[in-house]
Description:
The protein is an alpha/beta fold. The protein is 34% helix and 24% strand.
Amino acid sequence: MLxxxxxxxxxxxxxxxxxFGAVVALRDASLQVGPGQVMALMGANGAGKSTFVKIxxxxxxxxxxxxxxxxxxxxxxSPSGARRSGLVxxxxxxxxxxxxxxxxxxxxxxxxxxxxxxxxxxxxxPNLALDxxxxxxxxxxxxxxxxxxxxxxEPDVLLLDELTAALPTDLVxxxxxxxxxxxxxxxxxxxxxxxxxxxxxICDRATVLRDGHTVADVAIEPGxxxxxxxxxxxxxxxxxxxxxxxxxxxxxxxxxxxxxLKTGNRLRDVSLDLYPGEVLGVIALEGQGQDELFDVLAxxxxxxxxxxTVKGKPAQFSHPADAxxxxxxxxxxxxxxxxxxxxxxxxxxxxxxxxRLRTWGAIPMRDEAAxxxxxIDRLQIDTRAQGEVRRLxxxxxxxxxxxxxxxxxxxxxxxxxxxxxxxxxxxxxxxALVRDLADQGAAVLYYTSELAEIRLACDRAVVIFNxxxxxxxxxxxxxxxxxxxxxxGLTEKAAQS
Length: 497
């Protein structure tokens, strides 16, 4: 189902294959992108998209196939070589050194400072200081830094791998406008995203991968979404359960209560109640205090005011272990911070089981193995590459971060953007899992950067603006315009904050 590609390809990859031991990441992948064109690269998690991008940009060497840049056979053997050839990537995870500041990271990549400053401002962070330490910045700011750094190099081909998955709506809009402007200026863009609204807004064509094969190269046109999903999954799919959830009826005492919580300059006054059996969504634009809220509840940061009550008892956390002991467990937005990437799937999932041992003696291996196996089966984790978690797709890595707490037992689960950068099938699995956990009595606090997820996964949503809760909305009423209006501070309560 391959339509004719662009007549003059800036980048032309054909028959690319790559294997990691027993795992075949790419079998026969091809892609052509012309000047002034935005090409979507699409496929379910594990289809080979990120591996393909890493081959195109010199991080990995293909086992077979050809890559041509401007008509010449490419011998790119490193990311720096790719940059010299005109290909500049922004990978799915930040490629910055956390113990250095922004200026030092720019120097390491030979990035000119003046263009970088221009693009950071254009992308919505005009006050970002060059002496800011990378490790102190939220994930969304890191993604903007990565993109501004790439744009400052004036690439012929810009490769964006799930860039907007970590961004709030206001920054996403700026990124999409910038990408389209790059194409209008004659540059080429390869764009990876699981958000069909973004694909429809800025992309000209889509290359679809399935199981390491290119199965289609199609024009983006109205109504193409369902056809692309069928291509990605290998056949027609059952409609998703997208109906509005009934309004949640809270009963009994809250599992978790937060009252007038504050810390730093961003979290100013947040109060909320989370009940057993409830999935409570959190909506906020970038930098409104949601990061700090989850950090406090997970024990990564201390509150400077307000109270946290767990099961009716006051709680103070000075370390993540304190929060875990109280029953609060975090799945962070950056899965790389949660996983031991060089260890196996089973070791990662079993970690909390080993950590809970308080006495010397034999580890109950049979119980541990049963719990880990049950969690793997429940989340349908692909364990073919279980020798190292870093070999898994992003979606399977995210499943592992959740599975470790399933294996331990869930009381109160803190999910920070859990479906960021994962495919539609895995998203549906996570929605179903979250609902199942709540039905079994767990309490779930669920921050999402995708407004549509409130109706798909949550019972209610709190909206945070300027460090304060400005609205609490039942899922039945949580349409995107309502959430967006509150998130931008366009409510009466927000105007008073």
